[in-house]
Amino acid sequence: MNLRTLRAFVEVVRQGGFSQAAQVVSLTQSTVSKAVKSLEDELGTPLFNRAGHKVELTAAGEIAYRRALVLLSERSDMLAEINELLDLKRGRLRIGLPPVGCGVLFAAMFATYRKRYPQVDIELIEHGSKRLQECLEAGEVDLAALLIPMDEAFDYQAVRNEPLIVVLPAGHALSRRKRIDFTDLADSPFILFEAGFALNAKIMAACERKGVVPRVTARSGQIDFIVDLVAADLGVAFLPRMLAHKHQHAGIALVPLDEPHTDWHIALAWRANAHLPPAAKAWLELAREMNVG
Q: Could you give the angle at the alpha carbon of 183 between the alpha carbons of 182 and 184, nearest 5°?
């Protein structure tokens, strides 16, 4: 059993297929299939139920996937500790950020970090919260920006807490209200972020508490496009206050959302009890120093 085989297996699970996994690990589909078959032969049991084009884990596959994530993260920790021991001149910061809001929060910080640590290589990935959490669990990034509350497997340093703002078409009947809750919006179509964004879960949970079943008319990962859709009267959207104000224009109205437990509370997270490399520690220290947010 080798770590390359485990990486290929993990990506088949994550990507939902062999061809998609092959693209991620930069191998041919045949090589990925052989790697998974080799792992199954070594373990003496199938890891997938192969039904047509759909790939589902067997009970043994669930165990193998969980353990593979641990092994891959341990490898990452080992390399980080050795690098720190050798006091390498060229460090590496691996950080995962969601597309929502992180430009506003972290752009200036990246510039300062680069000036202060010019020899540190920065590896930045952008995903929704669900995928970032998986990357953090697997040790593929050292830090990830996630919303609070988060899994107990992570420690974190809070960054910013922003209330949500309802983004309405300028002529909407509720556009002059001082505050709005989800019962007020029961008849308005929602424009949400794409699947995998933690903000969606907060919105849907708050709707459920109010007994509101929202009608989702569109989804996007681009804030500019979401705001344009609202201005075109396709529905209403929800943004953290700092982003709503940044994108404000004459075609929309902004009204605070009056709902508990819906704040956009973002933090820098890392695996609890895992080794945190010097480059990541320096990023956390800079975030405190600059009082990001």
A: 85
